[in-house]
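Sequence and structure are no longer studied apart. To make this concrete, we show below a single chain and its fold as tokens.
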Amino acid sequence: MSSEQPTGADLVAETLATEGITHVFGLPGTTIMELIDSLGKREDLRYLSTRHEQVAGFMADGFSRAGGPLGVCLASRGPGAANLSIAVQNAHDESVPLLALIGQVPGSISHRRSFEDMDVVGAFRTMCKWAVEITETDRIPELLQRAVRTAVGGRPGPVVVSLPLDVLQAPAHAEPGPKVRIHPPAPDPRGIAEAAELLATARRPVIVVGGGGAAAPESVLELAETAGAPVVSTWLRKNVVANSHPAFLGSLGYGAHEVTDRIVREADVVVALGCRFSEFTTKRWTLVPPSARLVHADIDPDELGRVYPPTVGLVSDAGAAAMALSAALGPLVAGDQGPAAARITRRVALREELDEASVLPAGESTVEGKVGSVALAGLVRNLMEREDVVLAQDVHTFGPWVQRYVHVDRPASYYGSAGGAMAWGFPAAMGMALARPDKRLVTLSGDGSFWMVAQDFETCVREGIDVVTIIVNNYAYGNTRDRQRFAHEGRYNGVFLGNPDFAEYARLLGGRGISVTSDAGLGPAIEEALAGEGPCIVDVVQDRMEGLPSGLTPPRAR
């Protein structure tokens, strides 16, 4: 730090460093330049500029998800803040911790139609856990450290902090307090005992695990073995437990196998760990039978009873609840192997059914010069068997193929965006690559999604971020095309696109680019991409009508 009197911007940077922040992603703007200057004075904070604020937000999102310190993004007032809002809303929907710092006009000219003035707190209040404007320089440590605790505590999520320019420029006299460690709550023993009694007598139990349980796969599987119950994951949360484990019976949601849905439909006891019963996971809230008794453990009390009233509700960390429930259940089932044996026998039969349904269908692309989805699914399946690969799955029409036919066995090796924001995958993978430099980050993106953030391939090259981007290029907004095909009798309007040569585009920006126009070319192309250094685009060219797995139709229009 300089010997000069520190400013509010210096104090923001010092507070971030005190909280263990290492990376800040953003786009320069007038009201945020003081903070960018202060970040540049420190060796313990790295600032990266993007070409769009949305990308900065998604990079911070990916950085947080992949196990880095809290992801931080920044933007200037007005239009910059509006651009950032997509990433903030998506993080809120997916319970991803995020800190968004937004430069604001000086307080002396706010609410007077000054240039790009906006009500930051009012605009973001409904799409984050907390939004606050800091109006006094010496309150920066207090409120900023509270913002960090709020983002990571309880149900994680984004927090937005508005920083007026005069607050950043003013002399600072305060200092950050010590970093506070937050420990998640343990479940109530009485609730655990009641839940164990329900589970001990269940004939067709199922354990539904969401993102809240992803950090404790061993505890989840221990409970499954004690109960003899199958485990299913919520939509796009395939990595909650090893998919090869005999207890795992698939992922719910769009593209789920019929047997996976049936396990929940037939359940008499449902144990839900860290899940929110969202629309896609529950087939629009039709999956859980009214007769089922529900044990719901979630760190956020507002989620208990929001959709389904629980028989037993536990405000708890999902992993702690699974561990406590397994310990309480053990003595209840130890002396009576009849029900437990029957549950395991049923689970084995269901797993055999799932394995049969998960066999990738045979078939090659029938369109010359195009890649078929069967071949691409096989490639992604092989990719996930590599120890060094982490996959970020964007929002695209190829997603159901991954849902059905790709297995995930390594923890923290697969991330999917259930928030619905197109273009998440590529920037999120950039953030993940910075958080986990020991892994090879691969993102699977549609051409529609990628082209929304394609300009930031230059950021990837400039900052030396090693990401392989597989573009599933069908020259269409595929999900919307499929809805028009099924719901509007094939009257296509506004869904077919024109694209450049993505491989050449990558090379023009200083990266690597490979085009794939046949099934046979997929394997060599990916091997070449992973063997090289630096960012790479693999342009997988498909027919514009290439779509869903056989027999699957898109969710009905809402």
Summary: The chain has 20 helices and 18 strands. Residues 150 and 159 are 7 Å apart (CA to CA).
